[in-house]
Amino acid sequence: MSLIKQKEGRKYSQENKQSGFTLIEILVALIILSIGLLGMASLQINSLRSNQSAYLKSQASMLAYDIADRMRANSDRAIAGDYNAFDTDGGAVPVNPNCISTAAGCNDVSQSNTDLAEWARRINGTGNAIALLPDAQGTIARGAGNLFTVSIIWKETEWDEANSVKNVSNQNFSINFSL
Description:
The protein is of the alpha+beta class. Helices cover 49% and strands 20% of the residues. The chain is built from 4 helices and 4 strands. The chain has helices at residues 2-15, 23-73, 75-80, 108-124, and strands spanning 86-87, 137-142, 147-160, 165-178. The chain has a 4-stranded antiparallel beta sheet with strand order 1-2-3-4.
C-alpha cells in the first residue's frame, strides 16, 4: 500500500504544477487579435471607397453609351445636327414632347428631342428621374467627319488621410464614335 500512495502522491504533486495559459499570454493574444481586426476594418473601408468610385464610373459609362446608342438609332437626325453642341448644364435642354406614349409615335425630330430630354433628366436628376451621378454635366460635341464625343463630368469626394480633409475633384468619362 505504501507504494501506491507514493505513486499517487507523485501524481498528485505533478497535477499541482501550473499548466495552461498565463494572463500575459492571453493579453498578448488579445493584442494580436485586435491589431488583426483593425487591419480588416481598414481593408473594408478602402474596399468601400473603391467600390463607390467604380460605381460612379460605371454609371457615367452607362449614360454615355445610352446617348450614343440613341444617336445611332436616330442617325439621320444626328448627322443633320440635332445633337450637336448639346450641354445638360446650359439650360437649353429641350422639352420632352412625350411622343413615345402616343399612338402615332415619334417622328425623327421629336425623337431626338425626346432622347436629349431624357438623357439630360438622368444626368441632372430632374423630373421623375434620379440623378445617377453627383453634380454631373453631360456634353455632346461633333467633330469632323461625323465624329461625335460624349463627355460626362461629375464630382467625386475623396478623403485625404495625410491632411485629414475631404477633397472634391472632377472626374471625366468620354467616348468617341462616328456615324
